[in-house]
Amino acid sequence: MATLGDIGLAAAINILSALIFLLAFAILRLQPFNDRVYFPKWYLKGLRSSPTHRGAFVSKFVNLDFKAYLGFLNWMPDALRMPELELIDHAGLDSAVYLRIYLIGLKIFAPIAFITWAVLVPVNWTDDGLLQERNHNVTSSDIDKLSISNIAFGSQRLWSHIAVTYAITFWTCYILLKEYEKVASMRLQFLASERRRPDQFTVLTRNVPPDPDESVSELVEHFFLVNHPDHYLTHQVVYNANKLAKLVKKKKKMLNWLDYYQIKYSRNRSERPNMKTGFLGLWGNKVDAINHHTSEIEKLSEEIAAERKRIAKDPNSVMPAAFVSFKTRWGAAVCAQTQQTRNPTLWLTDWAPEPRDVYWPNLAIPYVQLTVRRLIIAVAFFFLTFFFMIPIAIVQSLASIEGIEKAAPWLKSVIEVPFIKSFIQGFLPSIALKLFLIFLPMVLMIMSKFEGFSSLSSLERRSASRYYLFILVNVFLGNIIAGAAFEQLNSFIHQSASDIPKTLGVAIPLKATFFITYIMVDGWAGIAGEILMLKPLIFYHLKNFLLVKTEKDREEAMNPGSLGFNTGEPRIQLYFLLGLVYAPVSPALLPFIIVFFALAYIVFRHQIINVYNQQYESGAAFWPNVHGRIVIALIISQVLLLGLLSTKHAAQSTPFLIVLVVVTIWFYRYCKGRFEPAFVRHPLQEAMMKDTLERATEPNFNLKGFLQNAYIHPVFKDGDDDEDDVVSEKWESESVLVPTKRQSRRNTPLPSRVSGASSPSLPETVNDHHPEP
Amino acid sequence: MATLGDIGLAAAINILSALIFLLAFAILRLQPFNDRVYFPKWYLKGLRSSPTHRGAFVSKFVNLDFKAYLGFLNWMPDALRMPELELIDHAGLDSAVYLRIYLIGLKIFAPIAFITWAVLVPVNWTDDGLLQERNHNVTSSDIDKLSISNIAFGSQRLWSHIAVTYAITFWTCYILLKEYEKVASMRLQFLASERRRPDQFTVLTRNVPPDPDESVSELVEHFFLVNHPDHYLTHQVVYNANKLAKLVKKKKKMLNWLDYYQIKYSRNRSERPNMKTGFLGLWGNKVDAINHHTSEIEKLSEEIAAERKRIAKDPNSVMPAAFVSFKTRWGAAVCAQTQQTRNPTLWLTDWAPEPRDVYWPNLAIPYVQLTVRRLIIAVAFFFLTFFFMIPIAIVQSLASIEGIEKAAPWLKSVIEVPFIKSFIQGFLPSIALKLFLIFLPMVLMIMSKFEGFSSLSSLERRSASRYYLFILVNVFLGNIIAGAAFEQLNSFIHQSASDIPKTLGVAIPLKATFFITYIMVDGWAGIAGEILMLKPLIFYHLKNFLLVKTEKDREEAMNPGSLGFNTGEPRIQLYFLLGLVYAPVSPALLPFIIVFFALAYIVFRHQIINVYNQQYESGAAFWPNVHGRIVIALIISQVLLLGLLSTKHAAQSTPFLIVLVVVTIWFYRYCKGRFEPAFVRHPLQEAMMKDTLERATEPNFNLKGFLQNAYIHPVFKDGDDDEDDVVSEKWESESVLVPTKRQSRRNTPLPSRVSGASSPSLPETVNDHHPEP
C-alpha cells in the first residue's frame, strides 16, 4: 500500500518532469530553426514562410529577442483564443470535435468532483471501518480513509454512495445528450456548408459479380444505367495497381539517393561520388553513383510506363469494384442507402470515402472472405487480449517491492532506501505497462487492414475500438485483478469467472493509489511530452542537415503528424472509465483526472492549431463510438459498485443499482436511435436542397469533368513530381483565408472569420497519366 | 424419479387420447352438417357450397355412406398430397413456410436420433457411473442408464459426447443454411410473381412534424413533391376514427339483435317480440323489440354519417401519419430505405403493410413515446417473466407425490395406489403448466400493441419473440431449476446466479422423464386435439341453431381461425430446444420429438389446406426469427453441455465446446448478413424489373385510381353490408383456380397447377363512403 508520502513524491516527480517538458518546449519553439517543427500546419497552409530568409545570420537559428522568453506559457492563452468555428475552418471538423472529448471530461468531472468531495469524503472520513479491519490485519493508507473502504460493513452510510451514483449517472447522461446533440448538428452544418466534393456524388460499389460476356466496366455501366436510369453519370473501375505502386515507390527511393549524391557532389566538386551495386552497397562493382542512379531511374520510368499500359489493357487488372458517380447528390444518397439486387452480398453500395481516405488494397475482397477474415481476427484479437495479460502480470509482480525482494534478495538493502522504494512503487508499474503498449497500435492496425475495411477513417475507428477493449481488459481489469492477485492470491485462484464483479469491486478501492500514479505518469508527464515533439524535432534536423537543398525539400522534411484517433481516443476513454469508476469509491482520484483533462485540452488545442495535419476528414464520424464508450464506462462503474456494495453487506441496495443500469442502457439505445443515423445515413432532404441550390447557382457546371478522374489510384497521379507544388498553389489560390504570409514568430491566430465556409478540401489535381478505361 | 413403467403408462394414455381425438375427427368431419367447420377454407375460396341443399333430409346432416368410415385416417395422405407450389397458391407463402418449420425438425432430428442411438446409447449403457453413485444414495431409473448420467466422473468416454455434439452442430447448421437459402429464394420468387398490390407502391410515413401553416395533408404533399419530385404520386392521411369505429360496431350489434327478433317473429307470427330498454334488458319500459331496434339503427346511422362528416372536416382528426404512394415500385423502394431529413425521428418512412395487415390505432405514436413505451414494456415483461415462475414452482412442488403427501397427509392412502401415483407423476405437472400458459399470449399481444407496432404481422412476430423468451425462462429453465430444487434444495438456495450453466447442466439429465411426458401431453395429444377443433365446432352449431337464416349468415358463423404465429411458433421452438439440449445428454427423448414433428406436420398441413384462413400475408417475413431461435437453442445446448461436463470433471473438454459456441455465433452472423436483408429490404433491381415489365404490358393503367383508396381505415369501408359478397364474387371471377364448385364430401385436392401465379390477394373493394381528403 502506497502512503500519502509515496504519492506526494510521485506527484512531485511528475509535475517536475511536466514542467521541464513545457519549459523546453517554450524555449525550443521560439528558435527560428525549429519553426517548421512547431508550426508546420501554417507552412502547409501557405500562411507562413521560412524565417531563415532574412535578417542576421545568427537570428536565422537562435531567437535573440529575450523578451520572448519571459512569458514561457504564453502559448496557452494563444491556443485557447481561436474560436471553435475558426478552428473548424482551420483544422477540420474531426479535430475540432476531438477536442470536445477533453471538454466533456471537464464538464463531467468538475461537478462530480465537487459533489463527491462535498458529500462522500466527509461521510467516508468520519467512519471507522478501517480501524475495525485493522484488527484483522488488513493494512491501509491515509488515502483509503477518504474512500469507501473506511465505511463499516452494512453501514447505512452506503446509501449516500448510491445517491451520489444516481447524481453522477444523471449528470453524465445529461452532458452526453447535450454533446451528442451539439456534435450531430455541427456535423450536419459542416456537411451542408461544404463545397462541392467528389465523394458527395459518388458511391463505392463492391462485389461486382463476374460476367463472362462483359468487362467489369461495361457491367457496372449497364447495371446502373438500368437500375438508376435518371441519375447515373459515370464511373471509375478500380485497378489492381500494387505492382505499379511498388515500382513507383522504388523510383522515388532512387530519386532520393540521386538527390543525396548530387548534394554530396555539389559540396565537394573534386570527386564524383562512387557506390557499389551489390547488397546494401557493401560489395559488387564500383560505379559512378550519379550516372548509375540516373540510368536506373530511366529504366524504372520505362518499366512504369509499360506497367501503366499493361494495367490499362489487361482485363485481369480490373478489380470487381467501382466508384459510381451520379448526376445529383440525391441519386448518390439513394444508391448508397438501398439494396441493389436480390443477393445482398453482391453489388454492395456504400458512400465513397474521400479520395484521400480510400484504402485501396482492400477494395476487392469478396463477401464470404470478409466474414471469414472477421472471424479469424476476432479469435486472434481474443488471444492477443488475454495472453498479453500474462507478461504484464509477471512484470508487475516483479516490479513491486515484495516481488523484487523475492526474485532478487541481494537487492534488498538497495530498495529498502526510502527514496528508491517510493520510486519503484510510484513509477515502475506504470512504465512497464507503457512499454507494453507502444507496439500494440501497429498490430491492431494491421489486424483492421486484414479485416478489409476500405477507408483509412474506418480503419482507425476499428483499431480504436479494439484498442479500447484491450485497454479495458489489460490495463483496467488486468491491473485490478493481477495487482489484487498478490494480496488475495489464495482466495482468488479457485473462484469461478462469474464472481468477477464482486472480486473487482473489492479490489477497486485498493488500486486507487496505483491509478493515481498511472494518471500522473501517462496523463501529466506524457501529455506535456507530447507537445515537445522530440521525435519529429530530431528527425527534422537530421533530414535538414543531410538532405535538404531546396525549400521544397524542407517542406517534405516536416512531419506534422496527425491526431491518431486509433491510439489517442482509447487513452482518453481510460480516464473516463477511471473517473467514473472511482467517483463514488475514491473521490481522491478525481482532481488528478481533472488536471489531466485540462492540460490535455490545452496541449492538443495548441497542437491542432499549429502542428497536426489531418490525413482525412470524416466529419466527426467517430462520435457514436466516443459516446458509446463513455456510456459503457458508466455501466461498468455501476456494475462494479454493485459488486463492491454486495461485498459490503449492503445487498438491499442491489435493486437500486440494477434500475440505474437498465436506465443507462435505455439512455444508450435512445441516443443511438435519435442521433446515430446522422453519422451513418444521408438525409435526402439535405441532398435535394444542395442539388437545387447548385442547379440554380451554377446551371452549366461540368460535373462529369469534375468527377471523371476524382477516384484514381494515387499511383497514377504521382507520376509527376510537381504535384505538391500544384497542391500548394491551389491551396493558396482557393483558400478563403487572408493570405498574409505572416513572418511573425509567435502563433498569434488570425482574426476570426466566423462565417467562412471553406474547409480543408482535397486537391483535385489530376495529371495526364491516368489510364482511360 | 419416474420409472420406465410410469412413462409407459403416460405414453399409453396420451396415445390413446390422441387416437380418440383422431377417431372423433374422422367421424365428425364426414358429417355434412359439420362441413363448414372442417372445410371452411374451401367455402371462403368459393370452391365448395353447402351440401345441405340436395338429397334426402337425413343425409343433409348425417353421412350414411358407411364405406366412408372405413379409411378413417385417409385425410393424412390427402393432406400430404398437395405440392408445395400449389399450397402457396392456395394458402399463401406464410403458411407454406410455416409448415417447413416442422419439416426442418424432422430433417434435423431424424439423423441426429440415428447417430446418438448408434453411438451414445451404447457408450452410456455400458458404463457404470450410476452404480457408483447409488452407493452415495442417489436414486436413478432405467431411462437414466441410457443417458450421460451413467458415465463415471472424468471418464474418457465423454469425448464421444463432444464428438457427437460437433456432429449435431454441423448438421443443424447445414440444414439451417439450406433452409434459409430456400426460404429466401421462395420469398423473392413469391414477391416477384405477385400481382400488382397497393403496398408495393406505398410507404408508411410516420411522425410528420406539426406545421402551423399547413395541414398534414398539404405538408405531406409538399414534402414529397420537393424531395421525391419524379416519383411521388399521391397520399392518404390517416384519420383518428376510433369513435366512428365504436359507433359502427354498435350498429352491427343492433343489426344482429334485429335479425334475432325478426327470426323469432317469423317462427312465431302470433306474437311480436317485446324487450325491456334498461340494463341488459332486465328492467325498464317494455317496447316492441323490432320497432325499437329499427329506430335505434336509424338513429345510429345518422350519428355515423355525422361523425363521418366531422372526421372529414375537423383537422384535429387527422393523425401525423400518411400512406404515401409512388409512381413506381422503384420510387417506393427508395423512399422506404432512405432517411428523409436531418432529424432521424421525423418523417420516418417504412414499407406500408398490406392494407388488411395495418394496425390502425398505433399509427400516430411519436418517437420519444415509442422509446419510453419500449422501456416500460421491457421492464413489465421482465417482471412478468420472473414473477410468473413463483406460482409454477409452487404448483409443481405440490403436484409431486412427495409434495401432495406433505401438504395433504390424509390423501396418502389414495395416491399410493400405483395407478393414481403414475397418473399424478405423468400428468399433473404438465397440465398445471398448460393452464398457466393459456392466458399468456393475450397478455403478450396487449404488450406488443402498447409498444406501438403498426402492423398485425409485426405484432405477432414481437409477441412470438416474447412468448419464446417466456417459455425459455419459465418452461425450460424454470422446470429444470424448480424441479431440481426438491432434490438439491439445500445446495441450491445459496448459490450465486452465475453458476447456472453448471447447475442446469447437472439437472438436465434428471428432468428427461418430465420433458418426455410434457412432449406427449402437449405435443401428441395437444396436436391431435387441434385437428378436432372442438371450440369452433360447438360455436358453429350454437350460432347455426340460434341465428342463421341465410347462406350469408352461415358463412359468417364459420370461424376458420388462423395459424397463430405468436403462439404456435414459440411452442415449436421449445421442441427444437429440448431436442438439441437432450440429444447429447439423453437420446431417449429424441424419438418422442420426432413423432411430434411428424404428427404436427401432417395435422397442420391438413388444417392449412382445409381450415385456416390467414388474415395477412407477410411473405415469410418471420423466417429470420425462426432461424435465430433455432441457433439460440443450439448455443444453449452447447453451454449447458459445457456446464454438465465441467461438473463431470471433464474440464479439459471446455475449450472444445467454447470453440463450438464461437463457430455457431459466427454462423449466425454470417447468415444474418447473407440472408436477412432479403426479408427486410427491397432490392432496387427487382423493383425496376417489375416496373419496366408493367410499363410495357399495361402502359395505360390508371395507377392513381388503383392506389387512391387502398389505405382507408376499414371503418370507412364497412358501411355497406354487402362487402363480403363483393369479395367472394371477386374471388370467383379473379381466381385462376378452376371454379368447379365441387360437391364432394371428401377433400380430394384439386389437380395440381404448378405454374399458376395467382396468390391470395387483398380485395380491392372500395365503396363510396370514404371521405375525400
Automatic annotation (TrEMBL), chains A, B:
The keyword Chloroplast does not apply. It comes from the Eukaryota. Residues 373-645 form the CSC1/OSCA1-like 7TM region domain. Pfam families: PHM7_cyt (PF14703), RSN1_7TM (PF02714), RSN1_TM (PF13967). Residues 200-362 form the CSC1/OSCA1-like cytosolic domain. Keywords: Calcium, Ion channel, Ion transport, Membrane, Transmembrane, Transmembrane helix, Transport. Residues 723-773 are annotated as: Disordered. The chain crosses the membrane at residues 6-28, 101-120, 158-177, 375-399, 419-446, 467-486, 574-604, 625-645, 651-671. Residues 9-179 form the CSC1/OSCA1-like N-terminal transmembrane domain. Signal peptide: none annotated. GO terms for cellular component: plasma membrane. It is a multi-pass membrane protein. Belongs to the CSC1 (TC 1.A.17) family. This is Calcium permeable stress-gated cation channel 1.
